[in-house]
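Protein Record: Sequence and Backbone Structure Tokens
======================================================
Scope: a single protein chain, as residues and as a discrete description of its fold.
Tokens: labelled as protein backbone structure tokens, with as many entries as the chain has residues.
Position: the record begins directly beneath this header, with no further notes in between.
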Amino acid sequence: MKRFIKISKPSLVLLFVLAVWGCTDKLDEPELNNNFAGGTDFTDSSGMLLSTVGAYEAFYSRGWEQPLIISVRGDDVNSGGLGDQPEFTEMDKFNYSKDHWMVNSLWENTYADVISAHTAMEQIARYQEFGSDEEIALGNQYIAEIQVLRGMMLFQISQVYGDVFIPESSDTELLLEVETLPTKAEVMQHVSDQMDLAIPLLPEMRPNERTDLKGGVTKYTALAIKALANQELENYQAVADATGQIIASGKFSLYPDFYELFKTPGKLSDESILDLQYSDFNQGEGDRFAHLYAPYGSVNWTPAVEGAASGWGFYEPSFKFIKFMLDRGETVRLETSVLFTDRGIAELQTDAAYSDLPSFMTNVTRDGDKINDFSRGYFSSGKHYLPSNQLIAGRTAYGSNKNYNVIRYAEILLMYAEALKQGASSSVMTADQAVNLVRERAGMPALSGVTLDQIVDEKFAELAMEWGKRYYDMLRLKKYDELSYDGRTFTEDKKYLPYPQPQIDQFPVLDN
């Protein structure tokens, strides 16, 4: 069962009416799903938009546990579920259970959304049978957008489980006939190929430049996912080519304030390539579309705005990450990434090398929220934190109205730089230039003759706690020793989560 908050039905109808009449001009309002019933008039091409926004709704509707499962095993973050979700804590230590409900939830809900994407594409194709040339072309764009969302979901599910299904239609019965699972490499190549099909059909603009579906998929979203898939394949020339096209477009730039990038001012900035979008619709009560951010928050805080709810303490920046950042002389990226407690600071200072800490490392954020000590952890994630003074008046849920970053331009620059150091070639810019753009925003000195190790470190500093990007880099680069830290022991056979037992029971091919 999905665990997310949906807009009420009256508002859903209103949003669909607005979508049909082209009035979707709010910055961060996703459209919601349309369930097709008998008697659908496929000669009314406005239904294509409803199918499309239904696919977006499915993609945005992440259960709270899903991003955590994808990302918790890296050395940048620790779990905090002990006493509530002990198997989640064990997962962080590379001890897996195929019976854990979270393991099944990620698989089941991701595939449900992939099937929803196929349903939407098939519905659009029905409308195209009766459409004009212009309507057929618009339908092709919508199908391409949905292909991109589907591609991102297959990319992530394969990162987590390795060899997985590649559905080709909404008919789930066909999966029962699969005799051999596609390998992870085959999944990644499929994703890359799908992006090639989608790219020519998509708008050549930033997501925040779209006026029909603000923040929706564009050509550059597809290029970014193509680059990610080819990075997993270690096809670094393809990575350089795809990221180079994004850079050469001149359309993207780094949001100047790293701290605010992950908060309301940074929503759908020129750095955004793919976000999960959520909204309180600029109102303090009533309809909202939201992700449950409570798992990331401190269990105990004194918010600057009285009444703002606290969190669950399930997601904690690691001591290893914090020490790594201190050793580099990081300031704004460390302050942004970590919410400190007095207990965490005191524990750091038991190591003589960290007895003298910078003044920004305090349990009071620059927005005045006080992060009190709590038993589940020493720290909380700052990237998933929305200051209480940025909540819309009347809203109290932790992180309400906050978007969830998926792909940022900073990652594109660093992927490009790594690809060059892995042997690819490109004349768009040098690896030094790409890395130094990211470092400049962070207030870090420029590098000359940047090495692969320095780029990997830069990705650690920039992308920590974002969708397990650090963990999957360590797998791809076979830096397994980095994952054996603080009492954890990682071995190569622990790369992937086990297939969930309920899925094995349904699909015997998973037990081969």
In short: The radius of gyration is 22 Å. Residues 133-161 form the longest helix (29 residues).
